[in-house]
Structures are given as C-alpha cells and as structure tokens.
Amino acid sequence: MYNPVAILREVHRVLKPGGLLIINIPNAGSFEAWLFSEYWTQWSPPQHIFHFTKQTMARLLTMTGFHPLNIKDGLGTSFFLGSVDSVLKDRLQTKIRCGKLMKVLVAKPLCLLIGLLGYGSEMKVYAEKAAT
C-alpha cells in the first residue's frame, strides 16, 4: 500500500457500521526487528513500504475512524528463520541455511515465548467501524 491512510479511510467508508477490520502485518516493534536490525526480513520493500508498531497502528486506525479492539502477537517462525538466513548469508558469508533442527530447537520455543511476552514479529489487528 502506497497510502495506508487513504486505503483505510476508503475501507471505513464502505464498511457497514459495526463491521470488523482484520489486518495481519509485521510488527516493527518486535524483538526480532530489534535483534536482527537491518537483517530482519520484513524491512525489505516492496512487500512492506510502511512499518508499524502496535502503538502507531492503533493511532492510524483511530485517525481513519476505526475503533481498535485488539492487537495480537503472531507466534510464527518464518520471519525469524528468514532473518537468521540473511545474517548467515550477508554477515557470515556462508551458504548454510536454517534447517529443521534450528526450527524445532531454537525458533519455535523462542518465537512462542517472545509472542507470549507481547513482542512477536507479526500483529493481527482487529478494529471495528463504530455503529451509528
């Protein structure tokens, strides 16, 4: 999206009162974004031109007429593993990639813990158009 404000305003316009908006996006305030810094896979355009934290997403929703209901953390491992692969490739100059052992022993338990603590790498955002 090149203009998230305009798009959310249009969604608000066409959504019925009481309608639910659900968005799944990367969390720029996540532990992984901090840990991997420029190697976090979700920084890369063109998939994501704008990046949001929970606070900036809540402000954007309010600014476009929505009532934020909940922002849940994702517990997935794909962003984490992709970021580890980027570090291995770019910083360590190796062709080694994350395997199943890394996913099971490191990524799954770490991502679960981080998500439960509120710093997961993705957000599932729930908001509603106020009933009039």
Describe the fold and architecture.
This protein has 132 residues and is of the alpha+beta class. It has one domain (4-129): Vaccinia Virus protein VP39 (Rossmann fold). The protein contains five helices and three strands; from the N terminus they run H-E-H-H-E-H-H-E. The chain has helices at 4-14, 31-36, 54-63, 78-90, 100-116, and strands at residues 20-26, 66-73, 122-129. It has a three-stranded antiparallel β-sheet, covered by helices on one side. The two termini are 28 Å apart. The mean pLDDT is 89.
Could you name the CATH class?
Alpha Beta
**CATH level 3 topology:** Rossmann fold
Shape designation: elongated
Average pLDDT metric: 89
Give the number of DSSP strands.
3
Secondary-structure arrangement, i.e. CATH architecture: 3-Layer(aba) Sandwich
Total tally of structural domains: 1
Order of helices and strands: HEHHEHHE
Head-to-tail CA distance between termini: 28 Å
Low-confidence parts: none
Give the neighbour order of strands across the main sheet: 1-3-2
Tell me the name of the CATH homologous superfamily: Vaccinia Virus protein VP39
The percentage of residues in β strands lies in: 15-25%
The number of distinct helices, counting runs of at least 4 residues, comes to 5
Helix content: 40-55%
Structure class:
alpha+beta
What keyword list fits this structure?
5 helices, 43% helix, Rossmann fold, three-stranded antiparallel beta sheet, 132 residues
Can you describe this structure in just a few lines?
By secondary structure, this protein is an alpha+beta fold. It has one domain (4-129): Rossmann fold, CATH 3.40.50.
